[in-house]
Design a protein that fits this description.
- By secondary structure, the protein is α/β, with parallel strands linked by helices.
- It is built from ten helices and 13 strands.
- The protein has a seven-stranded parallel sheet with strand order 3-2-1-4-5-7-11, sandwiched between helices. It has a two-stranded parallel ribbon with strand order 6-13.
- α2 links the parallel β4 and β5.
- α1 crosses α5 and α6 packs parallel to α10.
Length: 291
Amino acid sequence: MSSGVVKPAANLLVLGAGFTGSRLAAAAAQRGWAVTTTSRQAPQNPGPGHWLAFDSREGLVPEPDALAGVTHLFVSIPPDGQPGDPVLRLLGPVLRQLPLQWVGYLSTTGVYGDSRGAWVDEQAPTPARPGRSQARLEAERAWRSSGLPVQIFRLPAIYGPGRTPFRALQAGESRLIHKPRQVFSRVHVDDIVGAVLHCLALPASERPALLNVADDCPCSSTETLSHAAHLLGLPLPPLERYEQIEASLSPMARSFWQENRRVSNRRLCQELGYQLRYPSYREGFGASLSA
């Protein structure tokens, strides 16, 4: 006689339930999945499912028994300054004992380096700059050689509710910096979630090992800031020319401006058939402001 208990469609472990990971966990839970999330500290507003502590810098990892039965793994934890990937370093043997059907790893389109504004797809070279992008590329390589069923998602700048230019504009802290012919790609956080779920709905044989997730509209930061100011009814800050302020920028800010590329989503949208919820920052900023 049946007990009446319906087993979840999948058992998802989200390592790094931050801006993106927490939204994926919520979307998966809505679909009836069992969900476990991790972060360095206990969340103030607990999400769905169970929470576990994971902190690679402190060597804090979940007990193996707490991960038993996990079938799907989503990794949104960046490199931590040590070689390879922190998750594989601390949890690799445990993960290889799990019945994993899929592993999703969030990487960055920074691995493509500076293409001088040209389009880059998944076949493009990866001359990642030393530092964060090179560390991501090394982490990618570690995952791809792990023997696990890994799918790597390369992301440009991520935005969404609470992560837009609005707050800085309202506080008078925005800078309108212009660099001729400089463009950036971006993606709404809900399209990352949507793309991941779209891939999980495909047969395993049809999931590409590498996938760019970006919107249709690479453009300058002056264009996006101007639109944000228009939506808020606020004036723009004074225009600053990059060549005049470059020396005053932090090393991280300069690295941001030293790379110029357009990220192609052809594989995701045309080959895999995913339809973007927010094809450009215009739709995405409007939805984020409403939220």
